[in-house]
Amino acid sequence: MIGTLDYAFAAQHLTYVEMELLGLLPVDGRYTSFCVVRNPYDRALSSIMHFYPAQWANAADEVERHAGFERDLQDWLRKPLKDHNERAHRRPQLDYMRNKFGNIAIDHVLRFESLDADFCEFSRLLGIPETNIKRQGASGRVRSYHDYYSLYSKKLVEAAFGADIETFGYTY
Predict the structure, then answer these.
(1) What average pLDDT does the segment 56-77 reach?
(2) What's the start-to-end Cα distance of the chain, in Å?
(3) Which contiguous run of DSSP H or E holds residue 159?
(4) In this predicted structure, what is the pLDDT of residue 140?
(5) To 5 degrees, how large is the angle CA 150–CA 42–CA 138?
(6) Residue-wise pLDDT tens digits, 67-100
(7) pLDDT tens, 118-169?
(8) Distance CA 155, CA 169 (A)
């Protein structure tokens, strides 16, 4: 969607291009940018559990968990999304980092899986006090994302988010 403006001022999730087009970036280039990426397999599961009832999420039966997640994942990946927030969760993470020329324009990439350590290192680089980041909005899921995936749902995520998986070196 390079060059397309999809924004909601009350929402979050603006891409770098959207910030450029809205004039939200300093023109003198005197800023340091960073973003946080998340393992695409974990991110997809988290999104499904956020947007769908996911009664299968706590099922003791592995087949039920796999089938429920697979069904909702297929639906989520296929359906046209009109809501900015849902669309933002389905976009590849690389979309948030590319400028209007298609180049990655972010200075530092932090990982959700090691956010506290990464943010402390980032703070040190900037010469600012280290801060512990408090997680908010966590689902309280107790199982690993591995416990929800079938071979087919794994392939669906790889097809949808393969560029993120490759670029950031994620593995299943």
Answers:
(1) 95
(2) 27
(3) helix 151-168
(4) 66
(5) 130
(6) 999 999 999 999 998 888 888 899 999 999 999 9
(7) 999 999 999 999 888 877 766 667 789 999 999 999 999 999 999 999 999 9
(8) 16
Mean of pLDDT values over 21-50: 92
Neighbours of 152 (CB within 10 A): 11
Beta bridge pairs of residue 2: none
- DSSP track, 90-149: HS-GGGGTB-TTS-B--SEEEEGGGHHHHHHHHHHHHT----PPPP-S-----S-GGGG-
Q: Which long-range contacts (CB under 8 A, 24 or more apart) does 136-145 make?
A: 139/46, 139/49, 139/50, 141/46, 141/49, 141/57, 145/39, 145/41, 145/42, 145/45
Residue 108 pairs in a beta bridge with: 34
pLDDT, position 11: 45
Amino acid identity of 164? D
Q: Is 116 exposed, middle or buried (0-12, 13-18, 19+ CB in 10 A)?
A: middle
Q: What amino acid is encoded at 32 in this protein?
A: T
